[in-house]
């Protein structure tokens, strides 16, 4: 039963750490984020296994983590209050060509990254061509260009 409790504890700890670290999609991670991820996975892996590295313990831990993950997903889809705790709401970063600097700073996103996404996804070259830039729940940035009527 100890491996189950270790798995639950590690899952909850990582959930808290990831929520506190902010949204960032996998495509946006830096080399520093990758190094941190590798170090955390090594540390947590050792904590999960403990002194028992048997196949049975690995199977119990794996099943426990999958069950916790599925339960979290189900709870987030079923109850809005839990969804807000587990996942952030989309956040507008640029509105009608106006940069919301405090949001970029708070989310640790550079304007250059938003503009790069605008160029790559929508062919938008200037800030005044962006109606909305939205940081999605997944950490991806969506760009909604201005219509010809909006310009």
Automatic annotation (TrEMBL):
Cellular component GO terms, alphabetical: plasma membrane
UniProt feature coiled coil, ranges: none
Membrane-topology descriptor: Multi-pass membrane protein
Keywords recorded for this protein, A-Z: Cell membrane, Membrane, Transmembrane, Transmembrane helix
Pfam families: DUF421 (PF04239)
InterPro entries in the cross-refs: DUF421, UPF0702_alpha/beta_dom_sf
Localization terms from the record: Cell membrane
Main location: membrane
Gene3D superfamilies per the UniProt record, alphabetical: bsu07140 like domains
Residue intervals passing through the bilayer: none
Organism superkingdom: Bacteria
Keyword Nucleus belongs to the record: no
Domain YetF C-terminal: 79-148
Record family assignment: Belongs to the UPF0702 family.
PANTHER family linked to this entry: UPF0702 TRANSMEMBRANE PROTEIN YCAP
Name of this chain's protein: DUF421 domain-containing protein
């Amino acid at each position: 039963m100890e491996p189950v409790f270790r798995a639950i504890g590690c899952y909850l700890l990582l959930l808290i750490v990831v929520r506190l670290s902010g949204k960032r999609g996998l495509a946006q991670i830096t080399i520093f984020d990758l190094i941190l991820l590798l170090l955390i996975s090594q540390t947590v892996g050792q904590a999960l296994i403990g002194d028992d590295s048997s196949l049975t313990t690995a199977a119990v831990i794996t099943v426990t983590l999958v069950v916790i993950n599925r339960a979290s997903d189900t709870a987030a889809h079923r109850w809005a209050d839990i969804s807000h705790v587990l996942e952030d709401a989309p956040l507008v970063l640029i509105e009608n060509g106006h940069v919301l600097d405090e949001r970029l700073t708070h989310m640790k996103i550079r304007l250059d990254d938003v503009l790069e996404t605008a160029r790559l996804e929508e062919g938008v070259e200037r800030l005044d061509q962006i109606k909305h830039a939205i940081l999605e729940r997944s950490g991806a940035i969506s760009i909604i260009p201005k219509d010809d009527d909006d310009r």
